[in-house]
Amino acid sequence: MNRKKCLLLLAAGLVSFGAVLNVCADRAGLIEETQTAIGAAEKAVEAARADISRGKELIARIPEDSPLMLDVMQMLEAASENWTVAVESLEGAKKSAQKIESAPSDVVAEDFSLLSRVNAAVAVSGAKVVQIGLVYVEAVANEKTESLDLIRSTMQDALASTSQVQFNYERIKTIIAEKYSK
Fold it and tell me: 81 to each of 124, 125, 137, 147, how far by Cα in Å?
């Protein structure tokens, strides 16, 4: 009789241990997915940071009385706004990612992972706007005005995409907040 109880307890323990390993594997997959998204965002933000450094030199080469100075300023304004968004979103992605491992359940861990990945996407899209804005500045500084219309069009597309990504992030954040406020 004791032997049967012991075998049952051992079997139950092994099943429980297997479930714990499965949960750890699921979380590890979530963490890996999230870290991949954050890594891409970090690379995009670093590339934008390098472009900003280079852009400071390029702006100095544009004459103050250039007829394109207004366009340059508009591009820089869009780049500046999106730079702030990119940096804040990258930080938000990292904060959400840190909470995955200690989440009380798999569902909560998945929600933190989703928030982190969407925040990382916002960071990438913001960084791309910065890069496009600085490509425009570079074209003006190097007097390559034949490409300005194409760059303007690309910037409009990037701003529209960024706006959509930010909208989706806000929607997901609201849905998750409502999910846990009940």
Answer: 14, 12, 16, 24
